[in-house]
Design brief:
about 75% helix, elongated, mainly alpha, about 240 residues, 3-stranded mixed beta sheet
Amino acid sequence: MPFFFFDNYYILFVLPALILALIAQQMVSSRFRKYSAVKNHRGMTGAQAAEEVLKTHGVYDVKIEGIAGNLTDHYDPRGNVIRLSKNVYDSTSVAAVGIAAHEAGHAVQYAKGYGPIKIRQAIIPVTKIGSSLSMPLILIGLFFTAQLGDLAEMLFLLGIALFGLATVFQVITLPVEFNASRRAVETLESTRILYEDELAQTKKVLSAAALTYVAALAVSLGQLLRLLLIYNRRR
């Protein structure tokens, strides 16, 4: 049996996706760093931009808080709060405004009942279980065939199915993230929060961030295909 963690299927399907993920992360860091040095003409902070996006869409009950860390920005639907990292919350850069508006876009999605985000939220508990159990079951199925017989085959297949649920989550995440960015850009443009040249710079930051989600899906799909091929070869 080829070494499970680095076989030919891994090189063919997973490794290229991992390289794409590294490139995407580098692009995000590079563009955020570059456009964090560009201040918007209106002097609006990230927190103010997020608030403006919310008000434009008629959403008034979402809190906006600062949080420690770098690029730790997120919307928490449980607390109905947008949490922005320090270099976004009180920064007047075009990068900060774009990221804050994107997170506000997620809050608007929840407020307006956007379909894909409701589906993603509903399957989170299942995907968490799938993520934690899939690899242990796959490894048991792979390496204890002699001891478990047909049960090992069943555990291996169950592990693949659970891993597939996590992949479904990645698929649903793509339209959610793209839509949040689209809402952000459209609002920043319609409200004149950013000028045309600033908007183009913000789009570069958000497109780099979107690529990270594409890369994550590519990694997940590559791993899923690899597991299916390993299972088929074992049969």
